[in-house]
Hints:
Strand content: 15-25%
Structural class: alpha+beta
Organism: Pythium insidiosum
Mean pLDDT: 80
Protein name: Transmembrane protein
Largest sheet: 12 strands, antiparallel
Keywords: Membrane, Transmembrane, Transmembrane helix
Distance between the termini: 19 Å
Radius of gyration: 35 Å
Shape: elongated
Amino acid sequence: xxxxxxWLRLPVKAQLALDLALVVLFVLxxxxxxxxxxxxxxxxxxxxFTTATPPLRLDARVLAPTDNVTRAGQFVTRxxxxxxxxxRCQSLRAIAADEARFSHVLASDCDIGHSGAxxxxxxxxxSAGIRADxxxxxxxxxxxxxxxxxxxxxPVVRYFASRYNLRDRPFVIVDVASKTxxxxxxxxxxxxxxxxxxxRPGSDAEMxxxxxxxxLSLSSSLERVTCATGFVVEGNGYYLPSxxxxxxxxxxxxxxxxxxxxxxxxxxxxxxxxxxxxxRLSGMAYTVRENRRSLFVVKGLRSSTAASNxxxxxxxxxxxxxxxxxxxxxxxxxxxxxxGTLYTVAVAVDLALLVLFTWSAYETIVGVLAPMWxxxxxxxxxxxxxxxxxxxxxxxxxxxxxVTSGIYRSELVSALLLTSCVLHxxxxxxxxxxxxxxxxxxxxxxxALLSLGRFWVLVLLTINALWNSFVAWQERQALLIAHxxxxxxxxxxxxxxxxxxxxxxxxxxxxxxxxVAQHQHLEDKTSFAGRIAVANSFAExxxxxQHSSSSVVAALFLPLLAVVxxxxxxxxxxxxxxxxxxxxxxxxxxxPSRSGSVTAASxxxxxxxxxxxxxxxxxxxxxxxxxxxxxxxQLPLERVVHVPIRARSxxxxxxxxxxxxxxxxxxxxxxxxxxGIIFEGSGACLKTRVGFFGVVLPxxxxxxxxxxxxxxxxxxxxxxxxTVESDDDEVNNAAKLPRTPPHxxxx
Length: 747
């Protein structure tokens, strides 16, 4: 920030305008993040994202099961229900992008409908993204109350809507308006009665529903049941899922629903890849629910017309599938919904932080940027007279550094930020999902990157906490180190982003690791030799968990911990490199000071300059840190506020912490801002910055603390701009120097 005047070559007013724009931009980014967490991935369904798989190819070979059970209803023990789908279908062929994993299959010659009125479908595409509890819930919704079997009264079904924060009835009906273009027709329902979707008692539709519920009821356990949504292939084009098939892992049995009970798809059209990732603490939860609407695109089919065997002139069209040309694309409208007590707490914390950051930005504009602007608007003769009378003024570099002088050192803000980052780390599930899948929205990707980038502040908070502990233990050594090196806040953010980029594969794998740890995705490695069959899964114990298990916490937070630790190492490396650079750039030319003074620069070598960017480290400052008693290390303002400001400033907005002219030392404005001290009015008064508590109690007139008692006040005609601090011993040792009290104007 402080180097803009060197490489941008902009006029000073333009630089101030850019500073102002950045202050406003930082606030808008915080507001954007809060809006993203409440609207895009908030409690209400938005279906804000679109994704698509790469073209999936059909395998040349039929999937060969590892057991030979073929009798319907025979007891088996399987890792999933994939093989049991063969009870209704003659064969299964994987449709996948690689030869290792698959979740889509092409089922041939399937008997769909209930067993008493089955319909033979030559080719059915199935996608195993459905979980058993959603199928049971939707099926039970189609039955009248007195016709419901016991599973409809079990907790699996009764708590389904509250488990996922879903509506208990359809509110949107979606159909394909054009099979060739994929145009969808959405109809919003208003207070539609459940009876409008119910299956008539004794009908074939009711038999289809009951047969599906019977398969689910007899399966042990529901966690290993494989359910898949799909459609009957009838040529190239766009398809919405119209069928759901479920297969048992405990007996060779499966069932299909949707051919006769057509109301089922209205309850289930937005339940593809339904999952609820939950962080629980003492019964309180932060849940991120994922659900999708599916649209399938079939290409590469060949149609042929053959004459029928009857005597008339009728003919029928058949569809042949060529594996070399056949492709399947699975498009989804993706929705993430966040809810729970901990989510509400996290949003309230974010709202409080937004208020504090907005207030802090206002103080920066009014207290730093506006006075600098007024100074630049003054006539040239007034500027010259003011600079001559006060020896120095607020530089444009101070304004640049003030833009990034945040309120992160406030204990209140640090606690709120830590709470927000830890709780909102749950949003890594939707963010990583968006970044890992092929999303068709650039806006969604941008939002995901911006929200994921906010977690760099954890690195900053960790550095400040560790360094403050070191200052409390060894303040003298900490001051020495802070004098010879530093790391800026933007550098911490950039380093954290770079480290996160190095760990991107680990971060993007978090959703999958969480789903496996919470038993929400089933990966069957035993049913088909050499292949991994993936399916959605329902964990039956998820409603009774009070605390997240250690495996869930590890899957969620270990990648974050790795990124923070690696970023800390990188920050230390940057500080060491900067130390070596400054040691080589600014050789020690003066002997160590024996006076114990914090000020080291001689009056003849100090040039008060509005555009001076930085002071180089000197051997006198380093020697002073070794030789002075601990109380003498601090400037009077540091002693008044009881904060070793300079020693704690390893991370700061600019290299230079002090402004030196003659025997006088003053802290620069950005350093004071970072530690909760802000100037008010003409600069003669200090007050506590927003977000901090009790730094300045209640007001301090800086003239009373910057000069010794025997000094006379400045001439009435001179400017009453304040200095921040001066070292008492140094002023007394310089009694032979001209006794004109130096002042640092703050605007």
